[in-house]
Design goal:
With 65 residues, the chain is an all-alpha fold. 82% of the residues lie in helices and 0% in strands.
Length: 65
């Protein structure tokens, strides 16, 4: 049960991080063409955050949570 609660807490943290990074990417897109050089870096951060979130959700599902 502790593992499930730990995973739920991790998912909450990862979800908040992913949402924040998504907003950063959105803001960057709104300011185009200014800052276009940052697109790959910011997009990679968003990709990694959502990948980590998906993996954590899969672990939670496998744990029965």
């Amino acid at each position: 049960m502790d593992d499930v609660n730990t995973l739920k807490a991790r998912i909450k943290t990862l979800s908040a991080r992913a949402m924040n990074l998504k907003l950063n990417l959105h803001d960057l897109a709104e300011d185009l063409p200014t800052g276009w050089e940052k697109i790959p870096e910011v997009a990679e951060q968003v990709f990694q955050a959502y990948r980590d979130l998906a993996q954590a959700r899969s672990l939670l599902a496998a744990a029965g949570g």
